[in-house]
Amino acid sequence: MVDLLVKILGGGGEVGRMAIFTKDVNSDRGFLFDYGVNFDENDRPVMPSHVRPRDITAVFLSHSHLDHCGALPSLYVSSPPPIYATPLTLELADVMFKDAMKLSGYYLPYEDEEIKAVLDHAIPVTYGEDVDVSKDTKATIINAGHVPGSMLTLLEVNGTRILFTGDFNLSPSNLLRGADINNVPRDVDVVVMEGTYVANTHPPREEVEREFIRVIKETIEGGGSVLIPVLTIGRAQEILITLYKNGIDYPVIIDGLARVVNQIVAKYPHYLANPELYIKAVENSLEVTTDYQRRSLTKEPVIIVSPAGMLKGGAAVYYLKKLGRDRRNAVILPSYQAPDTPGFELLTRGRAFIDKAEIVLEAKLYWFDFSSHSGRAELEAFINHFNPDTQVLLVHTDAIKALQFLERLKVKYGIDNVHVPTNEESILFSIK
User: Fold this and answer.
1) Which pairs with CB-CB distance under 8 Å and at least 24 residues apart come from 352-358?
2) Span 189-195, average pLDDT
3) Could you tell me the residue ranges of all domains in the chain?
4) Cα 343 from Cα 352, distance rounded (Å)
5) Is 390 strand, coil or helix?
6) Could you report the per-residue pLDDT of 301-333, keeping only the tens digit for each?
7) Where is the Beta-Casp domain positioned along the sequence (predicted)?
8) H helix runs in 164-257, sequence order
């Protein structure tokens, strides 16, 4: 009998701020899965609950988005634990830490020295690898299909198996293969999984792409330009491939931090679904490196791909101000828009306050579902993959939508082994 404690430090009944701590109750130390940060409407960080670094045997980082990694450097002041992640995730996380420092450095509880300490204590791992973490603990690393380098972690502690998904996507995309569920055993004792889209089934990607390309061609042929605000990691690369694959032969401009990320991702082609297609897509785009180039870009019809995906900053805001006043132009949002973000305001009101000034959009506005998360159907399939006695904790999700999802599972499949924990909650599992 093993008594396994799982504590929700962040991500309980909320999307983002993911942080899960687990330990054998008879052990002095445990394991941390992710340690992310959210940001409020004033770009101030909202940190997960504290865990003492000396209580951590090891950290497992699922991927490089700030809502999963952004609080990690705060743990590397003293007694720094080893951190396991793919080399691509580690390199991208370094970029994201430093970008967060630029945006919210005054409020963040770490500086450059702590960022360096994270990387100094990193142990790179890759898909299919079995890692001996300690004498009684083994970790298996599995492709998560979410963003380049993302991983599922299967941790075996004293014979007890716990799976942490981070964000994952069972469906393949132009950029990545889907999560490798075939390498996930059915007899896992505890699964901690994301449920971002428990209430949504994504439309077929072929349909999304077809309409996306139609809008772009129609706009350019009508003499307008297209602005596509993107998430720096994952969505920027997916959009570039989608444009290239569909034969778009108009100028494609890449700006902002996505330029740096594109080059880093190119160093790790084995994580991509089609490395050759990716390299061609990146080479086919034009990088903006100076303010002069940026100012001259909007004089002719072009397609601009630039962070930030929710228009909370980045070069995309500059282009929005330039292009948003012309009805011939189009703004295409290919990402989820969180409430209280300028992107959400544009979608719901057609106007938004950015840099303390109101922008009223005259350009056409579109939203397309290019999500890199599993939708409701995939989440159901994932849960059904496991044995009936597997205990499932659903995190990184809206609490009300998650409870409705639980009711659906009971009615449709007779499943009652899924739970929606809250932040600060500790769950004890007695496993034979």
Assistant:
1) 352/311, 354/311, 354/317, 354/320, 354/321, 355/317
2) 98
3) 2-200+372-431, 205-367
4) 8
5) coil
6) 999 999 999 998 889 999 999 999 999 999 999
7) 236-346
8) 205-221, 235-245
Largest alpha-carbon pair distance within the chain? 70
> Which CATH architecture does the domain made up of 2-200+372-431 adopt?
4-Layer Sandwich (3.60)
CA atoms within 13 A on the CB side of 111: 2
Query: Tokens in use for 416?
Result: 């009652």
Supply φ then ψ for residue 360, to 5 degrees: -100, 120
Asked if 271 and 200 count as a contact pair (C-beta separation under 8 A), the reply is no
8 A C-beta contact, residue 316 and residue 306: yes
Q: CB–CB of 303/248 below 8 Å?
A: yes
| CATH number belonging to domain 205-367 | 3.40.50.10890
Confirm if 22 and 33 have CB atoms less than 8 A apart: yes
What pLDDT does residue 46 have?
Answer: 94
> Which of these, 247, 237, 229, 232, lies nearest to 305 by C-alpha position?
229
Share of the chain above pLDDT 70, in %: 100
* Token pair 């989440």: residue: 379
Residue 401 corresponds to which tokens in the numbers above? Answer: 């939508």
pTM (predicted TM-score): 0.96
Direct distance between the N- and C-terminal alpha carbons of the chain, in angstroms, rounded to an integer: 4
DSSP letter at 77 equals: S
**Chain segment 373-387, per-residue pLDDT in tens:** 999 999 999 999 999
Q: Kindly tell me the burial class for residue 326, based on how many C-beta atoms sit within 10 Å of its own C-beta (0-12, 13-18, 19 or more).
A: middle
CB contact at 8 A, 421 and 12: yes
Scan for tokens 């082994």, then name that residue: 417
pLDDT at 181 over 90: yes
CA–CA gap between residue 251 and residue 299 (Å, rounded): 12
Strands 364-367 and 330-333: parallel
